[in-house]
């Protein structure tokens, strides 16, 4: 005789408490809503517009990562491949399938889940996942100067001033070398959470990055 289980208990366990997975075009609206709220209030500019979000999630979904809690997107990263040493304006909209550099376009966390360390944990997991992609040699991003200490603590190094400007804003380009590639069988492991949260964020950077 099987033990009885209450319907409420079954419902609570229908979805995993936390999971990480690649995103797809169906996630675009949820992604854009988080991005718009996070960035418009700070800089007045979104790194990616909705059509650009759909564009990258259709072309290279494997270079995105979303943190899902009980079926709800709470944090995400979107990336694409780039084939030059430094970022140019074309890197904002193009995906170069033969490139060996991952351009991280955006990292954002839903407003109700900020100040919990989710941003740095997701970034760490994403960088570990990139080690499972044999063709990837490095990850790059551009950020405002306030965020340089945050990304340095995450292992990024300053490359110099970025050639890209948005309105009146200028950026610093940063690099993370991808070395010691893992076996592909570890790909699924890179989609799990570390046993304990990473302590890499500073309060000032966390507030600006909304993580």
UniProtKB/TrEMBL annotation:
<keyword id="KW-0090">Biological rhythms</keyword>
<comment type="pathway">
    <text>Aromatic compound metabolism; melatonin biosynthesis; melatonin from serotonin: step 1/2.</text>
</comment>
<feature type="domain" description="N-acetyltransferase">
    <location>
        <begin position="18"/>
        <end position="189"/>
    </location>
</feature>
<comment type="similarity">
    <text>Belongs to the acetyltransferase family. AANAT subfamily.</text>
</comment>
<keyword id="KW-0963">Cytoplasm</keyword>
<protein>
    <recommendedName>
        <fullName>Serotonin N-acetyltransferase</fullName>
        <ecNumber>2.3.1.87</ecNumber>
    </recommendedName>
</protein>
<dbReference type="InterPro" id="IPR000182">
    <property type="entry name" value="GNAT_dom"/>
</dbReference>
<dbReference type="GO" id="GO:0009416">
    <property type="term" value="P:response to light stimulus"/>
</dbReference>
<keyword id="KW-0808">Transferase</keyword>
<keyword id="KW-0471">Melatonin biosynthesis</keyword>
<dbReference type="InterPro" id="IPR051635">
    <property type="entry name" value="SNAT-like"/>
</dbReference>
<dbReference type="GO" id="GO:0007623">
    <property type="term" value="P:circadian rhythm"/>
</dbReference>
<dbReference type="Pfam" id="PF00583">
    <property type="entry name" value="Acetyltransf_1"/>
</dbReference>
<dbReference type="GO" id="GO:0005737">
    <property type="term" value="C:cytoplasm"/>
</dbReference>
<dbReference type="GO" id="GO:0030187">
    <property type="term" value="P:melatonin biosynthetic process"/>
</dbReference>
<keyword id="KW-0597">Phosphoprotein</keyword>
<dbReference type="GO" id="GO:0004059">
    <property type="term" value="F:aralkylamine N-acetyltransferase activity"/>
</dbReference>
<keyword id="KW-0012">Acyltransferase</keyword>
<dbReference type="InterPro" id="IPR016181">
    <property type="entry name" value="Acyl_CoA_acyltransferase"/>
</dbReference>
């Amino acid at each position: 005789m099987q033990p009885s289980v209450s319907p409420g208990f079954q419902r609570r366990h229908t979805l995993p408490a936390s999971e990480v997975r690649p995103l797809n075009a169906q996630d675009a609206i949820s992604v854009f809503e988080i991005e718009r709220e996070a960035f418009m209030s700070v800089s007045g500019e979104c790194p990616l517009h909705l059509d650009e979000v759909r564009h990258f999630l259709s072309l290279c979904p494997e270079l995105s990562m979303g943190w899902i809690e009980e079926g709800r997107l709470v944090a995400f990263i979107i990336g694409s491949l780039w084939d030059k040493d430094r970022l140019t304006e074309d890197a904002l909209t193009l995906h170069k399938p033969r490139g060996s550099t991952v351009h991280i376009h955006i990292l954002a966390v839903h407003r109700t889940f900020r100040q919990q360390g989710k941003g740095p944990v997701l970034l760490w997991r994403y960088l570990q996942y990139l080690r499972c992609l044999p063709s990837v040699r490095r990850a790059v991003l551009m950020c405002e100067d306030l965020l340089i200490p945050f990304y340095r603590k995450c292992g990024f190094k300053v490359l110099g001033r970025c050639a890209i400007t948005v309105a009146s804003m200028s950026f610093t380009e940063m690099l993370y070398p991808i070395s010691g590639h893992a076996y592909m069988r570890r790909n699924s492991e890179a989609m799990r959470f570390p046993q304990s949260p990473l302590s890499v964020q500073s309060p000032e950077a966390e507030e600006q990055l909304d993580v």
